Amino acid sequence: MTYVKPQFRHPNAPTNELGRTRQEYEGGLSTLCAGCGHDSISAAVIDACFELSIEPHRVAKLSGIGCSSKTPAYFLSGSHSFNTVHGRMPSVATGANLANRDLIYIGVSGDGDTASIGFGQVAHVVRRNLNMTYIVENNGCYGLTKGQDSATMDTGSANKKGDINMYSPIDVARIAIEIGATFVGRSFSGDKQQLVPLIKAAISHRGFALLDVISPCVTFNNHSGSTKSYEHVRNSNDAMPVDFVPMREEITATYDSGSTCEVVMHDGSMVRLYKQGNDYDIEDRQSALQAISHYQSEGKVLTGLLYIDRDSEELHDVLGTARRPLNTMNEQELCPGSKFLDSINAGLR
Amino acid sequence: MQSKQSINDFVIKFANVNGTGSASANGMFAKAIFRMGIPVSPRNIFPSNIQGMPTWYEVRVSEDGYLGRRGGTDIMVCVNPQSMAKDVAEVDAGGYFIYDSTKPLDLRYIRDDVHYIGIPFTEICLREYTDARQRLLFKNVIYVGALAALLNIDFAVLKDLVADQFKGKEKLITPNIYALELGFQYASKHFDCPLGIHLERGRKVAKHIEDFDNILMDGNTAAALGAVYAGATVAAWYPITPSTSVVEAFDKYCRRLRIDPGTGKRNYAIVQAEDELSAMGMVLGANWNGARAFTATSGPGLSLMSEFLGLAYYAEVPVVLVDVQRAGPSTGMPTRTQQSDVLSAAYASHGDTKHVLLFPATPAECFSMTLQSFDLAERLQTPVIIMSDLDLGMNEWMSPPLEFDDSHTYDRGKVLNAEQLENMTERFGRYLDVDGDGIPYRTYPGTHPEKGAYFTRGSSRDEYAAYSEDGAAYVRNMDRLLKKFETAKTLVPEAKIKEAEVETRYGAVFYGTTASPAYEAIEILEAEGISLDSMRIRSFPFNRDVEHFLNNHDRIFVIEQNRDGQMRRLMLNETSAPVKEKMIPILEYDGLPVTARKIAGMIRNYITHGNVTPITRRSAPEEAIA
Fold first, then answer.
1. Predicted confidence (pLDDT) per residue in B470-515, tens digit
2. Looking at domain B216-399, does it have CATH number 3.40.50.970?
3. In this structure, which topology does domain B496-625 adopt according to CATH?
4. Which chain B residue lies closest to A324 (C-alpha atoms)?
5. Residue A319 with chain B: CB contacts under 8 Å
C-alpha cells in the first residue's frame, strides 16, 4: 500500500456535467489493509457520484463504527460526514434527513454494525423508508477487532482459527425485503460493473435503498474455508448485470425484452437488469425472496437489484413535512410570539 | 373531640380507584379553589397501572402560598374501599373522614379522634342513574358537589368550570351540574356546613403569591411550549412515564401552530423512535444538520442515551434533553418522583464528560429554561439537560404566567454561513478555538460548494477535524472542552440566593421541586429561632455565586430527593467547596414529594442534637450568639 496519495492527474482528465473531475470526488488516503474490498466500494461510490454529477457538498455521509464505517473519510472529501457510534447510524441519518430533506444521504455500515449491534435501528429505518442509500460492507467478520465471527457469517463457514460457524446467518437483504424495504440490492466489491450502476440507482431511489455488498476481508476472512473470500464469492456469485441510465440521457440501445428488465425510477432514471434466465419479478417481494432462497439452496449468491418498489412514500411523505427543509425555517416562521402565549395563559386561569 | 379549625389552610386527600374518571373531577375541585383566588397545589399520587389500583389526589390549600407538600392530611375523601384502612390511619387527629355510607363502615376503621362524614354516594348513583358507566363517573362529580357545601366552595365557580370543561360537548353540562347539586344538597341537608376547616373568598393571601397573576399548569406542557417557542422543528422520543406528556403537548401545539394553512404541510417533524438510543441519535442528527431538535425522557431513557450524550459532548453537537426524573434505580417506582438523575446526567457517558444541567422549579421555569436551553446548546455546541421531575412535570402547579419577550432573537451560536465561508481566507478549523472561549465554529452540511465540509466523529481528531491519535492534540481538545465548560458558567441561569433576616452561618441548598417545601421549612425554623440563608441552584456548571455561598457558611444543609445526596456530591466534586463534613445531606427519597415538615424536622433534629453550635437564636442571650 502507499503512504502518499499521488496528486498528479492527467491534465485532460474527463469532467462531468458540473465540470468536475473524478478526483474532486475522492477522499483521504485509505488506512484499510491493501486489497480490502471496502476500498473498491469507496471507489465505486466515487464513480457513481462523479458520473451522476452530484455536487459533493449536497451529500451527507454517515457511518457507524468498524472498518467499513471509516470509509467515508476515503471518498467525497467535499461532503460533510458523521462517523457516529456503533450500530446507531440509522438514527443519526434519520434526524439529519428530518432537518434537511434536500441533501443526499449515503450511509456506510458493516455487518457487525448492521446485523448485530445495530440490527434494531436498521429494522426501524427500513420501516420508516428514510430517503437514503445504506451500504452494508459485508465481510462476515469483525475486522477492526481482528477477525471475530459476525452475524452474517454463513453456517459452515470457517473463521481465521478454523472454527466452523454453527449459527444461522442473518441475511440483511432478505430481512430488509421482508420488513418493507423499498430498494434492496446485493453486490460484490469485486464487481465494479454491477456495483457502480447499483449505487447510482440506490441514490436515485426515493426512499430507503439498501445495498448488501459482499466485501472480503483480506486479512481475517479470505481463507479457503470462508464463504466470504474473494475466491468463494467469485465462484458462487450469480450476477445479474445492471445498467443505470440517468434521467437526462436518451435510452439508445435496445435489448431483447425476454432477458432484460427495465425499471423506470421515480426521478425518470432507468435501471436495466439483465436477468440471465431468471424469470422472477423484482417488483414482487415474495418473488424476490423466493429467488434469493433458490440461489442459496444451490450454493450460489444472487447479486444485482433484488427488489424495488418505485412509488413508495418516504418518511417525509408519511409525516407530511413541509417541502422546504426544516433547518431553513427562521424565528419569524416558528415562534408564535407573546400574543399567543397570552391566550395560553388566559386558558390556564 | 377537638375538631380542626382553619380557613384556607388545609390538606385534603382523595382516595380513588384509577381508571374511574376521578382525575377530571378532582382537577375541577382544585381549579375551583384556584379560581376563588386561594393558593392551591394539587398532586396525583398514582400507580404504574391503567385501571383498578388505588390512586390518590392530594390537594394542599395554603393562604400563605406554600405550594410544596406540607405533610399530614386534614380531610380524607375515601372513594376506594381497597385502601380504606391505610387512608383512615393517615388522617390527622381532629380531621375528617368522608366516606361512602351506602354500606355501614367497618368498625375496625373507627377512630375516636376523627370526624366521620358518611355520604351514600353509591346509593345516590344507583337511584339517579341506570347506566353503569354513568354511575361510576358521576360518583366523582357528586363528591365534589358535597365538598362544595362542606368546604364552602363557590358553586358558581364550579358551574363555570363545568361549562369550560365541556366546551363543544354542551349536552354534558346540565347532567354534570345536576350531579354537583346532588352532592351539594345531600351535604347541606345532613351536615352543618361549612366544616371547621373551610374556604373563604377574599381573604389576604401571601404576598409572593398575590404579586403575580397566577396560572395553573403542569411542567411538561410548559416545557413543550418552551420548545415550540424556541423554534424546535424536530422531536424524537420514546414513550416513558413521566416524560411522555412533554412530546404529546409539543405535538398538540404544533398541530395548532405549525401546519401551513396553504399547503397543509407541517413545519415540524415528530418521530416516535424504537428506543431512547434512537431518539437521541435522531436529535443529534437533526441538530448537526442545523435544525433545533430535542427529546424528553426519564431515568431509564437517560441511561440509554448516555452513549450518544458522550458523542454529542465530544463531537460538539447541540442537544436538548428534558429529563423528567422518577424514582430509580432501574425501573424503580415509575410513577413516583425523585431527583436522582443528577449525577448520571451531569456525567452521562464514559470518558471525561460533563453536561450543562438546568433545574426548573416552576412551570414558568420549565418554559423559560427549555426556551433558553436551545440557545445554550447551540451557543455551547453541547448537550443541555433540563432536570425536571414527575412532581413538577405531571402535576398542576400555580405558577407565574409564561412570558415571552417578542424582541427575543434565537442565539444560533457560531455557525458560518456560505458568505462567511466564501470570504474566509484562512483554513476552516472545526475545532479551532478562534475566540479563546473554547467554542469553535461549525458549519451545516450543504452550505458551501468548496469550503466548510468537515468530518464529525467520536474519535480523537485535531483542530481541523482530521483523525489524530497524537496525544498532544487530544489533550488540547480535551482542555478546550474544559475551557468551554468555564464559558458555560457565564451563560447558565444564576442561583437564587436569599439571606435570612439575621446574620447566620447556616445555609440551605436545594433545587427544583424541593424549593417550595424548603422555603417553607426555612420559615418554620425561622419562627423557632433557627435562621438559614438559602440558595436555590438553577444550573450546572456552578458559577462563582455558588462557590461563594458554600464557602461562606459553616454548615450547609443540602436538601434533595434522592438517597445519595447527589447534588451535594456534585458540589463537592465541582467546586472548591468546604470539607465534606460541612455539607449535611437532608434527604427524602420515598417517591412522594418531600414535605416542609419533614425538611424542617430533619434540620431541627440535626441542630438540636448538638451537631451544630452555636445556633443563632433571635431570643437567645447575647453571649450565646457569639
1. 999 999 999 999 999 999 999 999 999 999 999 999 999 999 999 9
2. yes
3. Rossmann fold (3.40.50)
4. B267
5. 266, 269-271
